[in-house]
Amino acid sequence: MLRPLDTVAIAAAVAKCHRVVVVDENWKSGGLAAEVVARIMEHAFYELDAPVARVCAEEVPIPYAKHMEDAALPQPGKIVAAVKEMLG
Predict the structure, then answer these.
(1) Is the pTM of this model over 0.85?
(2) Other beta carbons within 10 Å of 20
(3) Domain range spanning residue 34?
């Protein structure tokens, strides 16, 4: 867990950009990305122009083999695709 989490800075960034993509190497469920999204919903919901997107690890144990690890963790192409989808 990241503590303290600067909710004021996050809300200010949302107010400036109006869109959010959260990237986290943890799973979507129960990870830091979920907490950041929850804070955004609680403190900056009305500043958003689009739903918050999350790019996270696949919901599997992280494998040891490099090529399988790369497949499980967020990669630049997946992040770019999420941003492009958000921007239309």
Answers:
(1) yes
(2) 21
(3) 7-87
